[in-house]
Amino acid sequence: MSGRQVDRGRLADVVLAAVVGALDTAVAAFDDDTTALDLVLVVLASAALAFHRAAPRAVLAAATVLGTAYVVHAHPGPLSALPVLGAVHTAARVGHRGVAAAGGAVFLAGYVATGPGTQHAAERAGLLAGWFLCAVVTGLADRNWQAYLRQTEQRALEAERTREEAALRRAGEERLRIARELHDSLTHSISIVKLQAGVAVHLARKRGDEVPPALLAIQEASGEAMRELRSALQVLRADEPAGTPALLVERARAAGLAVELTVTGDERPLPRAVDRAAYRIVQEALTNAARHAGPAKVRVRIDYGTRNTTDHTTDHTGDRMGELTIGVDDDGAADPDRPPVPGTGLTGMHERVSALGGTLRAAPRAEGGFSVRARLPLGDTV
């Protein structure tokens, strides 16, 4: 899709240069004083517009020099300013306001200096000045509009990324609420029933009476209900990750973030606590990259190390075994001289890693961008 857009943009630039060149050449051809040098200057000034996206300042310089040389040599009409107008608009559109204004001023100076000193020439110069002013203003307006569109798109992507996380968080909060309600109501009531049934059975046996089968059934059923209720509460309270780091990467790609995933080492099932921490670390790092890195590329690396079921010390290469290494790097706008203030996300990552006896480093990179490095001891794999 991006390659197709680039081809369309290139085609549009060539068409623009051809249209401007055709207009200027046609006007020049009807002038009896037009020479071959004038036609060459017109064609070159118009052809430069085909590269206005790639090198706006260079195109502005070329169009201004060639256009000014043309008006100085041939004294043409106002349409000779079209290549310079296009170059001025493009330069202002990408933020080079001063350069754009200077290019327009140079062309106007050449146009006025070589023209006849009549009222008609002055009117033409005023008209051209208005055109150049409009070119600068429309370029700036277009730049602001494009910035607004990019910001709106970024907000929409951010809302899409956070919507699912908010839904998962609300679902977790609801599970915890249900677990508390069940624990406070059913657990207490069933415990009382089980306790009373047990006391009744004990007293009947102590007196030598036959224990009623219904009482034994109540005791057994209440015990089974307690076990099942504990299992249900454990599931409701569990903070299990809803997927894998690979799924997080796919979701980030679908949301527009350029993410590359690399997995090395002996991939294997992880202890539940380590698996949960790895998921949350990758999730938080990708979320931060989407929020703060801008249109950056993100690299996610997960290294399982070398599997060794008998020894978790060090292998002959010097690499520590029994350890999961997670790295998330982006080439965004983070500056090493201005480290970010740790928020809830970074603090939560540090707490998760510290609880497992691992290490975490989250800071801007020296070459630009942000880096997250986590090392989690695996212990016994499951």
What this model shows, in words?
The chain is built from ten helices and five strands. Helix 8 runs parallel beside helix 9. It has helices at about 1-30, 35-45, 55-75, 80-95, 95-115, 120-205, 215-235, 245-255, 270-290, 345-355, and strands at about 260-265, 295-305, 325-330, 360-365, 370-375. The chain has about 375 residues and is an alpha+beta fold. The chain is rod-shaped. The protein starts with a helix and ends in a 5-residue tail after the last strand.
Sheet/helix structural class? alpha+beta
Sheet bearing the most strands, described?
Answer: 5 strands, mixed
Order of helices and strands: HHHHHHHHEHEEHEE
How would you describe the shape? rod-shaped
Helix percentage range = 55-70%
Outline the secondary-structure elements.
Blueprint: H1 2-29, H2 36-47, H3 56-74, H4 82-93, H5 97-114, H6 119-207, H7 213-237, H8 245-254, E1 258-264, H9 272-292, E2 297-303, E3 323-330, H10 344-355, E4 359-364, E5 370-377
Parallel strand pairs: 1-2
Antiparallel strand pairs: 2-3, 3-5, 4-5
